[in-house]
Protein 1
Amino acid sequence: MSPEPPPLPGTWTAWALSSTWQTANRNRPELANLLDGEFDRHQRARDGAFRDRLVASRAFAKWFAFRVLGHPVRLVKDARGKPGLADQDGQPVPGIDFSLAHTGDVLAVAVSQAGRVGVDVEVRDRPVDSPAFRARACHPAEPTDDPVRLWTVKEAIAKARGEGLLLDFRTVRADRPPPGWRVHTEVVADRYRLTTALGPWEKETA
């Protein structure tokens, strides 16, 4: 399988069912190489389902990055925990940004050579809408008729910026992304909302 032409220029996003990748990779003998710096985390975890998801998401991410870049990669994290790609010597792959997400039975990965990228995936009927949610996550002027779409857009932007949940989501509008940002969102596997956000290489966009 080759990556599909990207809806965002220079950016590739893919999703897969985690159960497929769990079955194929659960008993791999070289788990330490597959998981890179997360092998100890895998070994410490008592929850078998968590271990399976960790293995599946990292196997899928490495496979997809190889399909896009044409060479094997290692998965690394920066000082703030944002995932990235490195070569086999541990040196960051220049000019490439990377993001991954998973929820339920879906894995998602994004690779970009065009800027900072973030990906998020959520169940479409996740009951997130409430007065507390709107107060915590919504800009006063943005529409909230599709709260899961709203959340995935903001989460994808936050991941791309390397801020995660530290970002004040009330300062970002899902219907009007920050200057220089583009968003692509779609429904996958019938019941999941998948959103990719692409922004400039600079950390600050405002």
Protein 2
Amino acid sequence: MEKQKKQFLGMLLVLAVLAAAYGGIHVYNQKQEEKEASEEEAEKLTVVDFKTDDVTAFSYVLGGQVYAYTKTDGEWTWDGDISLTLDTSQIDAMLDAVTGLTAESEITDGEDLAQYGLENPSGIITLTTADGTTTLQLGDKNAVTGQYYLKVAESDKIYLVSRDLSGTFSKTPQELLKEEETDEPESVDATEGVEAAVGVDVTESAASEDSTEE
């Protein structure tokens, strides 16, 4: 009996040691993952360091035409027709793709802009905040990495970013309109329509026909 008790206590001790070891390994792995994620984030280069709510106006070139928008009292309007009601959530989603933008790498000696598609950019996005204006020039797609060349007009640096911003900023103002709710049409009695059309009471007419048949 005493021997079995000692064996049982020994098993409990072994289980406790294993549990502690497992817990320690789990914590260690979690810290390593957090460290690697932090280092990876630190390696990314900041291209745009302001937030969506900071943007007070923006514009982009689409099909050779410039579309400009302005925010007033939290609502966005198109400068071409301020009477249109735009979907603010759609516009914010567009801006979310570019504000806080980071790059995987940068090219500091890219003097020949043509080889990056930046001599004649495929797209230009201008963002205005209280601190000034930032203009992003969109270049070609890198065939090897699948990333896109981008240059900040106010800087000589060329970045490689993973987001296809030309695809994001590709909507016309008409596509950004807010959908208006339409009221359900009221149901109409079919007999009322017939009576109005022929100028007689359908009920009375049917009653007179019955009496005639009798």
Protein 3
Amino acid sequence: MGSERGSALLLVPAGVLIVALLASIAIDSTAAFLAQREAQAAASSLANDLVSLGLDESSLRHHGSYRLSPSRLRRLGPWSLQTTQERLSAVFEPGSVSVAVSAVGPAAVRVSVQGSARRVIGLIGKVNGQASRSVAAEAIGRVRLSG
């Protein structure tokens, strides 16, 4: 019995190290999940905004139909990129956010958001050769007129 007294002391530091490693993996996975949700929310919000702001007013006035103006959507491109980058700056690497906007039919718009999510702890080094995680989200905004 005397020779086994200190064996448990050697396991405690190894256990603490394993728990810390697993906690860092859990925190980084949670940060990636948060980035994914934020990207999806930003894409959805932007799609809804662009469907409203991209209205072709002359088509609505003259024909009574809701259509998107491709030229207006192109002019809103820089604004949409800046707005999305500001919204996602807390969870994405600076300058990594890209936004693609395209019309889907006469009264719908598709927004794709891509970027590199920050890793919070990153104790295990680069994952797949990258220090951050690639995240992508897509949303389609459609007009639904009531009445």
Protein 4
Amino acid sequence: MMAKAISKIKRYEVSREDQVEQDVQEVKEAVADHKDSILKGVELLKALDDEGSLDAMTAFVKAKDETLANVVKEIDKDQYEPLLRNLPELVFLLGEIDMRGIRELSLRLNHGLETMKGRGTTDHTSFLDLAKALKDPEINRSITMLLHFLKGMGK
């Protein structure tokens, strides 16, 4: 005698309340596992909101089609054609730049500008003043760096 074929399969169904309870427990575990990341995300959102960037981003997302159409329309103007033509070269150039060197140069330039602001620029400098200035180690170092830069630029 052969067994009867199974014709009805009763699937185990989880009640809505049980499913909600399981989901809430899963979310609680995820929050516990990633608490630091979630808190950093909240800090980021708060910073974006404090600066008004969150509102701008929200407005952009809500009107993204219109905003992108305006950006494309603006970029399509003749005045931006040279920029768009040179954009790939600019991207490659940025990849070749020594950013640490640029950052150090920028810090030194800013420091030099701040020092210059504190001093009068109407003073007259004589050749003797220049000779005396070369004895100052900071000035001598700066002039030496400038000479090396000019030599390297000339190659």
